[in-house]
Design goal:
Radius of gyration: 22 Å
Shape: globular
CATH class of the largest domain: Alpha Beta
Length: 407
Amino acid sequence: MTINHQTSQISSLGIVGAGNMGASIAVAMTQLGIPVIIMDNCSVALESGLARIEKMFTSLDKRLDSQEKSLEIAKQRKLIEPVSKYDDLKNVDLVIEAVNEDIEIKRSVLQNLDKTCQPQTIIATNTSSLSISQLASFTNRPKQIIGLHFFNPAHIMSLVEVIPGLNTAESVTEISMDIVRKLHKLPVKVQECASFLVNRLLSRYLNEAIYILQTDLADVKTIDEAACELLMPIGPLQLRDMNGLDIGLSVARFNYNEYGERFQFPDLLETMVDRKMLGIKTLAGFYAYKQDERKPIGINPDLDNLLKISQPSQTGTTLAKFEPIQLFLPMINEAFLALQENIVAPSDLDPALKAALGMRKGPIEFAFEFGLENCLKKIETLFHAYGERFRPAPLLKRYVWAGKNCL
């Protein structure tokens, strides 16, 4: 073992899981110039993972504009070694698990790594939502466990959320942050909470888009175009289709169980999943798709009938007019709640959201530009109309009362 907790130099690393994320993380990690062992005990999955890796490298190579960079890619290709047994990871300095987001699967993987790896090996989890402290409790090395949440595709996306558990050693956090920097990515330290920072805020925005559609305030095209005109590179409903509505529902249920009423998700989401309207993977979601094409060919013609029979979750007053800002107010409100809870350094919040979601302005910057008092007034109006999902964040109110115009 050559790991040095002062310099964060590592000589080899491992990845468990050869799916989309595992393969993409493997490609990203080759930038460190050290051996990358990718392990999957399913031979079919491992073979598929290697094919994905080759495709990623080929795509990267095509985008390069110099022979020197192409030679670098060729060197990186040779750094990846496929294996099928945990024993092959026993001497790595850092290992990242990138298996399915299922706590029992992760428990098994972490326990196997704990038995196999050297005591000083750092074990990272690429979980997008689960508690690092809980995952660490499955091992005998909680000080060596940390969350490294890469965004898909990991070899391209620049943000990595670095999440220490309650028992994670500070040196392990520092090493992890340094490794991410060496990958030329943005490390943002996030205190653990359900869905961490980006996915927590993103969920509020995605839910709101479906509520607006479900209550007939705006149609699919209007919602997505409004989001793109204001801040986003892609509309929320098209993004739902890309990610899969079934995955979206699973995340929505998890967040609702963790955070309560403000994360209540629209009935329409569950109804669409029940009817296998899952987005691109079933060629029908909010939009319709052709086989093997990711761009929509139009609005899903079955959506209108579904909207007619779908019953809104909320009761009482509804607003008569759609304002595009409504899409982002839940995200802004949640951002202030996250700051109130010290989930992230204030200076990191906007850069994290911009890096992960391609936002032209982060939610805090946008809120100050729109006017915090204006945001609060609209949130209060929506709170009276719709209830808990718009209860104003106490920190937002204090900022308005204090006349603050920056963090």
